[in-house]
Write a structure and sequence with these properties.
It is a single chain. The chain has 16 helices and 2 strands. It has 325 residues and is mainly alpha-helical. It has one domain. α4 packs across α11 and α4 runs parallel beside α13. The longest helix is centred in the first third of the chain and has 41 residues. The radius of gyration is 23 Å and the shape is globular. The mean pLDDT is 92.
Length: 325
């Protein structure tokens, strides 16, 4: 199958019912790409739900909307990752009474020997396997950092230490690895971190929110970092637990939360910013920025497009969040 040059792609789009013409549209198509742009943005969540675009202006507005969402979210997501890592790190150091990675494994990570008394033999075996997987992941991270001459890690080994301290490990740990570490901690330590954060633990009997929310934020962060589409949450590859939905809805007074719209990620970010004692002014500014770019998008597309892309409850949900803040 032969490839098409830009002019041919524009003709193909016109044949598909998209009004595209002139030098401005041509430059926008070149800059955003036919495959990354039109092919990537012509549907909502999955290819079966096509967005009824009638002009390239609407496609370009959708790409710009997505780009502005990523810019808006990025600094907040990075802030949350850093802050939660530091809170978890302090809890681990205190509960292990040590900065040694070995002591962390022995004292605060679940395994066969420190499983809950009610655990079955199979449950103990699974905890031990998770612990071994964690150890392998951490050693791989340290090895990669040393091979790449990362000074945060090489300093300790080159100075004759037997291992890097836990706090140095946290400096190189990815968000996914951090989430996995949280999932491997003992119940008591997960409970301690949850309470240090201020999570709504009454709906979280197994203290899983600390890592499940991190996994959720990680999916958004990775989509932003790889310039993937975020406006329709197609990056979401998980089914949220009952506790994940109940925590946000009960705490914030929302009728529901299901992580099927980008507004729910705004809600989750706002929840964490409030937990982390960010000022009301800053959080409300974040919400207003989201509302502004969303309203601006609605003005630039036809109502059939906006009805699919923007959830009808968006304005009402943001009003509830502002009251909560």
């Amino acid at each position: 199958m032969g490839y098409k040059k830009t002019d041919a792609l524009m003709r193909h789009l016109r044949d598909s019912g998209i009004d595209i013409h002139g030098s401005r549209h041509k430059r926008e198509l070149i800059n955003t790409g036919y495959y990354h742009g039109y092919k990537g943005y012509r549907f909502f969540r999955n290819s079966n739900k096509r967005i009824p675009f009638t002009s390239y202006d609407e496609i370009y507005a959708t790409i710009q909307y997505d780009s502005e969402l990523k810019s808006l979210f990025y600094s907040k997501v990075m802030f949350i990752e850093t802050a939660v890592k530091n809170i978890a790190l302090e809890s681990i150091l205190v509960n292990a009474n040590s900065e040694s990675i070995k002591d962390m494994y022995d004292k605060v990570v679940s395994g066969y020997n420190n499983a809950p008394a009610s655990a079955t033999a199979e449950e103990k075996r699974k905890l031990q396997q998770n612990k071994l997987n964690l150890q392998y992941s951490i050693q791989s991270s340290l090895s990669n950092a040393y091979r790449k001459n990362n000074p945060k890690i090489t300093h300790f080994y080159n100075k004759g230490y037997s291992d890097a301290p836990v706090w140095a490990l946290f400096e190189i740990m990815t968000m996914g690895d951090f989430g996995y570490l949280l999932s491997c901690l003992t119940y008591d330590v997960r409970d301690d971190i949850s309470k240090r954060l201020g999570l709504y633990v009454s709906v979280d009997l197994h203290r899983q929110l600390i890592y499940k929310y991190i996994y959720t934020i990680k999916e958004l962060r990775n989509a932003i970092a790889h310039n993937s589409v975020v406006f329709d949450t197609r990056f979401n590859n998980f089914a949220p637990s009952k506790a994940m939905k109940q925590c946000l809805s009960k705490e914030m007074g929302l009728p529901y939360v299901n992580f099927k719209t980008i507004g729910d990620y705004v809600i989750l970010i706002c929840y964490y910013l409030k937990l982390l004692k960010v000022s009301k002014t800053e959080i409300k500014s974040f919400i207003r920025s989201y509302e502004k770019i969303t309203d601006n998008y609605i003005k630039h597309v036809n109502s059939n497009v906006s009805a699919i892309v923007i959830h009808p409850d968006t304005a009402n949900r943001m009003a509830i969040i502002k009251k909560y803040i």
